[in-house]
Amino acid sequence: MIVTQTYTQLYRDALLNDVIPFWQTHSIDQQDGGFFTCLDQQGNVYDTDKFIWLQARQVWTFSMLYNKVEQRNDWLKTAQHGADFLKKYGRADDGSWYFSLTRDGRPLVQPYNIFSDCFATMAFGQLSIATGDDEQAQIAKSTFEQILRRRDNPKGVWNKAIVGTRPLKNFALPMILCNLSLEIEHLLDRQLVDQTIDECIYEVMDVFYDPDLGLIRENVTPDGQFSDSFEGRLLNPGHAIEAMWFIMDLATRRNDQALLDKAVRITLDTLDYAWDIQHGGLFYLMDSQGHPPQQLEWDQKLWWVHVETLVTLLKGYQKTGNQACWTWFERVHAYTWAHFPDPVHGEWYGYLTRQGEVLLPLKGGNGKAVSTYHAACINAGKH
Fold it and tell me: What is the set of domains in the chain, with CATH numbers?
């Protein structure tokens, strides 16, 4: 085994001495509750809208730190602060979670996005471990059950596509359910957990994985076939690689070496396909047939894509000893640390140009908040 103590300490220091203090200092809204997530380079608040995804991720982060790193009262207090705001303002009458709120908790955007529910489930599930609070546990459990009821039509009445013309299903939900089912396993019936895991593994590794292409598609037809359209040709390398560390955890749980090896192979094939040979780093979005992608941001380099990749490669190396995982880890690590950290003001940039220059100097927005992925790197690197 390659010694990784230096890497582990580097990521631990980045998380505990840089990222977490940055957010504890700048993001906590002491007046109206919850967290500010729109923070500029120096941590100043530039917009006060509150996005459920990011409120919930921050609750999960501080709960996880309390549960798995150190039982610090300030971490638990921070998690509880966000959870109180979410519990009071975050849900519509039917129990689904809004997408965004005003600073004082008035709903701004309807609960059209099921991933608000997913991250709320994670938040209250992890917090309930720390507190033993039955109400928090029930919020997590009931939200998870609602996700399962909605998964065949996640957007419901807010789906803007015409029904029946070009029906497609998206990779993101079965992907996140792989991880979510383990996040709140302590609250669920064992049979439900096992059934959900089996269904998600099949979806991720057989339905969305295209063996001819050797990659995972972001959208397929309801029966799992290729759609020759913008959406059908879309590849999201970060999603695919992130899903593989979820699958690795499930493969380990099931003692399934073949599944583990397949996850490593898909990771390495995705890296070979998505790495920018000219400028380094991973493309954000791609077209499976080499056509111009629909998304103008396709060639940006995003922080989460690279750190999720680091997590996956560490897990792959840890669980299989595959040397290619370590070689790629060092390559992605070098690019990531050369471009994303801000050594002057702290925390990490989120969005770079293809050439690796800072595109937006913000540290948080409507899609980026506390960089929790460092914690996953720490845990993955303990081998």
Answer: 5-380 (1.50.10.10)
